[in-house]
């Protein structure tokens, strides 16, 4: 069902638009990150200078508030940029995994078809041998031998195709397992980053509450 949904022509038409949107968001996050770095460096130096100059408390608190907000923006933009890239990579791996699973199913079908064809030719060979057994006519024997040789060649060809298809099937199976392992690793990293992001957000909220008090 999901394959039918994602195979709509509408998605292929929107792919170019979404790629441009992704690049736009990446550029925007990079700009916000660099601006946050600049603000942190700016207010850090001002914070040190004002603290050394022993100015009044209201101006010093205002500088501390600016510094805190710039640091918060730095953390948020940095984590957003990183998580956005992780999300993009996860979607790419899931797409590749879906393609490999589809090719895996196609190879499995091809292997089954080749096996059925080989069984069919072997059954026909056995029937010909049974039908022609006991007849001593040389011409019929020659015809039977030629037919048998032809069937043997066909069986050998089918066995070679079956072996080739089996090798491709094992290769696709190995690649699917590798993609699954990589996607599980990315999922664990994503969960770990989300936990760290939630802890950071809680600490920032606590710091804002303390500032308000």
Automatic annotation (TrEMBL):
Its main location: endoplasmic reticulum. InterPro entries: BAP29/BAP31, BAP29/BAP31_N, Bap31/Bap29_C. GO terms for biological process: apoptotic process; endoplasmic reticulum to Golgi vesicle-mediated transport; intracellular protein transport; protein localization to endoplasmic reticulum exit site. One of its GO terms (cellular component) is endoplasmic reticulum membrane. It is a multi-pass membrane protein. Residues 1-106 form the BAP29/BAP31 transmembrane domain. Keywords: Apoptosis, Coiled coil, Endoplasmic reticulum, ER-Golgi transport, Membrane, Protein transport, Transmembrane, Transmembrane helix, Transport. Residues 129-154 are annotated as: Disordered. The chain crosses the membrane at residues 74-91. It is found in: Endoplasmic reticulum membrane. Residues 153-212 form the Bap31/Bap29 cytoplasmic coiled-coil domain. Belongs to the BCAP29/BCAP31 family. May play a role in anterograde transport of membrane proteins from the endoplasmic reticulum to the Golgi. This is Endoplasmic reticulum transmembrane protein. It comes from Calcarius ornatus.
